[in-house]
Specification:
Length: about 325
């Protein structure tokens, strides 16, 4: 059967190479993030639940399980749980003494203390994130908003200053249109500043049009590494919401209600079939589908317990056939 294989960058061991009896913890899959020298696991663990749905004990368990299964890419923001997410991630890295092994991506622009992307706000926000994370540098800094009240030149120059100071390694966009990404690249060239290498955007089987138009084209042209957020459509693509009764059993049920329709049920039925064929969870197939798309590096997904992590990381080892990808494309079209 023809297989759609993820581009992992460097040669790495696969699950089939290791044999079915080997634990997934021994596998090491990495993808290059855009034009950076960052090599990351093909699933970023989301820190949006840390300090909110996941307390310190749960957060530690989630991050330990993710690391055990080969993960090295943590996604957070200065606004998540009022900064507590960054604090908990920082505490975990300090306790595990593994900062050098971890790629930390955080976002600025939405925090109550340092809102917006004016130069002073950017500098203050990064310094505050560094303190909370307990580190000297941020691997990937996202602009969490597209701040039209500030000249793009001012923001990009401020970020470049932080890169030159060694506080930030690379930068990316998180809420920008294709036109704004083009504008950012032109300005970066004119000013001679470091261009952005990454894009985080809303993209999953239930939400395709926003990315698959101009954004996908610009990402390809600029060779941006793309990290889809809401990879599991607020939990709908885990398969746990199939009836109206299911929606009321979980705090995120209301967010998934919009997908509980004929199209959504068609997508779940196709995911069920592919998951059965691949012997993995529905969630793993939803993430694996994203990983077959051009420029996708590491979808962002959250777990509220260590037990959920294994289902998520399994996506990195799934090799969907062309037929399976086509079936998922048709079901979600």
């Amino acid at each position: 059967m023809t297989q759609v294989l993820p581009d992992t960058g460097k040669t790495s061991e696969s699950a089939s190479d290791l044999g079915d009896t080997q634990p997934m913890a021994l596998t090491r899959v990495r993808r290059r993030l855009g034009q950076s020298d960052l090599r990351v696991f093909p699933l970023a663990i989301g820190g949006n639940v840390f300090g909110w749905k996941a307390d310190t004990e749960a957060t530690t368990g989630i991050l330990d399980a993710y690391l055990e299964h080969g993960g090295n890419f943590i996604d957070t923001a200065d606004s998540y749980a009022g900064g507590r997410s960054e604090i908990m991630i920082g505490n975990w890295m300090r306790e595990r003494r593994n900062r050098a092994e971890i790629v930390v991506g955080t976002k600025i622009g939405k925090s109550a203390d340092n809102p917006g992307l004016a130069a002073d706000a950017v500098r203050r926000a990064v310094d505050a994130s560094l303190e909370r994370l307990g580190t000297d540098y941020i691997d990937l800094l996202y602009l969490h908003i597209d701040d039209h009240t500030v000249d793009f030149e001012e923001t990009l120059l401020a970020v470049d200053d932080l890169v030159r100071a060694g506080k930030v390694r690379y930068s990316g966009a998180s809420d920008h249109s294709g036109n704004r990404l083009i504008e950012a690249r032109v300005i970066a060239a004119q000013l001679g500043v470091t261009p952005m290498v990454a894009l985080q955007n809303h993209y999953n089987l239930m939400h395709r049009k926003e990315f698959e138009g101009d954004l996908a084209s610009v990402a390809r042209q600029q060779r941006l590494g793309v990290m889809p957020r809401f990879a599991l459509a607020s939990g709908f693509l885990t398969g746990k919401y199939r009836t109206k009764a299911d929606l009321g059993r979980n705090i995120r049920g209301k967010e998934s209600a919009q997908y509980l329709n004929k199209r959504g049920l068609r997508v779940l039925a196709t995911l069920d079939q592919v998951a059965w064929e691949q012997r993995v969870s529905v969630a793993a197939i939803a993430i694996a589908w994203l990983l077959t798309k051009p420029n996708i590096v590491a979808p962002v997904a959250s777990a509220t317990s260590a037990d959920q992590v294994r289902d998520l990381v399994a996506a990195a080892h799934v090799q969907l056939s062309r037929h399976q990808v086509a079936e998922l494309d048709r079901a979600s079209d």
